Write the structure tokens for this entry.
Amino acid sequence: MAKKTHVTTTINGEPYEFLCQARQSLLEVLRDTLQLTGSKEGCNNGNCGACTVLLDGRPVDSCLVLAVEAEGAEIETVEGIACDARMHPLQQCFLEGAALQCGICTPGFLVTAKALLAKNPNPTEEEIRFQLAGNLCRCTGYDKIVRAVQAAAEKKEEVAV
Amino acid sequence: MSTDTKPQYKVIGTRPIRHDGADKVTGRAIYGADVKMAGLLAGKVLRSPHAHARIKSIDTSAAEALDGVFAVTTAADLPDLQNKIADLGEGAVNLAHLGANVLAHDKVLYKGHAVAAVAAADIYIAEEAAALIKVEYEPLPSVTWILDAMKDDAPLLHDDVHTDSMGQMSDNPSNISTHLHFETGDVDAAFAAADVVVEQEYRTASVHQGYIEPHVATALWNSENQLTIWTSTQGSFTARQQTAELLQIPVSQVKVIPCEIGGGFGGKIAVYLEPVAALLSRKCGRPVKMVMERDACFEATGPTPGSFMRIKVGATKDGKITAGEAYLAYDAGAFPGGMIGPGCMCVFSCVDLANARVDGYDVCMNKPKTQAYRAPGATHAAYAFESVMDELAEKLEIDPLELRLQNAAVEGTRRVDGPVYPKIGLVETLEAVKASDHWNSPLEGPNRGRGLAAGFWFNIGLKSSAAGNVNADGTVTLIEGSTDIGGSRASIAMQLAETLGITAEQVHPQVGDTDSVGYTDVTGGSRVTFATGYAAYNVGLDIEGQMRERAAMIWECAAEDVSVEDGTYSQNGQSMSFEELAGKLHETGGPVVGRGSVSKDCFTNGFGAHIVDVEVDPDTGKTTILRYTAVQDAGKAIHPSYVEGQMQGGAVQGIGWALNEEYVFSDDDQMENPTFLDYRMPTCLDVPMIDTIIVEVPNPDHPYGVRGVGETPIVAPPAAIANAIYGATGVRMRELPMSPPRLWKAMSESKK
């Protein structure tokens, strides 16, 4: 058994500790060790964005981050987007706008879009498309995803989440 | 034209939030890779580094001796499968070939072909063990281009495959496994009499479905000899049948639990990992989970064929198409049985053509065994035929839309392969193009062009089952057998709700496993909303009949005297809502369980037409999609948002196929781009909004008129874009993809 490292981190606002091997990715630990399976593995090489999480507020492909790099960091996953029982406007708009079909890419899109709206509350269509270009969706053709993000930007202003 | 204008129904045509939505936007939905259980082992497949080689020996002893390894398997553990043909619902398969694809026997036939597999305590040990398996190969010459594979002296993949030419078997073995021939009318005379003839050749590269979720399977073969499989599949019953047949055990010994599925598009019908995980679990008694790597998804699952096609069309000078001839050769990949059949049937499907001849060839070569990809075989044929239509329109100086309208297939048209169309909606679809804002807006500016193409897919029926349990609070739990790839739980539940006169939210749909719901064919063929929806309608009728009896019991009258309207049961001035009646079930005889099943051999015939505006960069050959409109006859759109979603998603897959996606092979027939980055599917930034126009010409064979929508939208895009590129550049692109280097080269050559 490979030697394991002790890591202390914050995930979705809660303190976490885990042991991991140096070679393990953050995605592996989130999914296999911490049971946070909302982040998905589509390619394991940073191409598809299904595993996107926020690392200190910045969207990253968690399959390309080593788990030991989570030490002292603030991580946010799709499981942390909803405020307890209340859905985030992005989640609500994805549902209302039918912006998902199979749903495997949805967690990654939600996390990336959340980071976008945090930085740019009123993005243009072009800015949305640019920011989401690292997330692949094979089902929707992106139309309804872009519209859902636009709708969430409007809603977010109304409810000021 | 729009579904929103005339609400004929209360539920159908509305846009409720899908029932499985909350779980999917909060990360709680359980997909195949999310399955956990005590004692779970990790499986790893060892794959061939060669495109074609004889396996001389396999030594697994070092792998078996490694600490943490629980089981190793090879094809030696699979029963000896004869050339038995198994009917898998959407197509038949030769079991010996299926088995040899799952684990190679004496030869590997493509790079990535599975050779052996390991189960270990974790994936790192499994990978280390797989690397310890010694396989001695004798490399053989290989071939991946179809015209080379068809040559007499081509490297031969199978000694036992002969060309089946309309029932006649060739004397010598051949890579050409099938030659199909359809003919109607007097083709030669019609060409001789034609005023104008256009004949062109087309080539397309292999492309992949590109589902974001890799293949995954977990198997537990328990001490009671029962095998349970958790998997991501388009058809749990098909997965069960394939696994049982490959292992030569009864289907009742296998239970398939379908997890949420992260995309399929035809690529998650054949089994790859399920039987291997089962063999490993049988050996060690522990559950084994196998997740396929992304490069293996490209190299070792089922891309859709590359092709070579030649199309010839003749017409009178006033635009009546009188003669057609098609030569279609499609890759089968490593084993016979590709998509050539539907290709041949679709090639002339959009025109009313009295004289036509189609020859189709199914060709084996050293690529992974091809599988269905959204309207399998139709996109290739439409790319070729609809491009020829555009050239014909130009020669005749007729508007390309008018040419299509003038020759459109209608009710009563006999397709070249035999069937006569019932009521279809191609003319209505083309009329919707004619009336659209897009078609009527001028396109200005240099290097820009507009293209149009039509497309067809059969849309099948087949077998589906569902059951409904009425709850005391007036809701109905619906269990259905179709795995839900894109929101079909909602479209099925809505049909039950409509039938019972309750709301979509009052139905709680779930996808059953193979032990809890009746046999249901695959989620494919654009059949689910049609056929499983039909089964749900039958569930509704069954429940309504039983509820009527309960009302009659309460009112002490005959059941036939109880009338039902919009979920309200009435008799002689008394009435009760569905909810009220549901609350009285326990005192009127107990639970109400409704059943529904269908077996539909019909085709619902989906027609579409796409309009696209492009701009081509003359310096780079890059094509930008400026505007896109997809028009399609859905019969009846149950949930219009998801109908639009299918049209938009199919269009963008077609855009990727047209402009970028391809398998690039090295000289030694290795795929050089087996990653998402290099395979280059469209991203958000590559496409504009995709406008949709839903046409509704109800299907007379369905209670709500459903035709199905999923596949047709991928058929037209490559041809529409090729025609637009011609408008922009004056260059006819007769090879897919029309990638920047290829288009730039063609533009450069045209200037010489």
Observations:
- Chain B touches chain A through 59 residues (CB under 8 Å).
- Chain B has 21 helices and 31 strands.
- The first helix of chain B runs from residue 21 to 25.
- The longest strand of chain B covers residues 321-333.
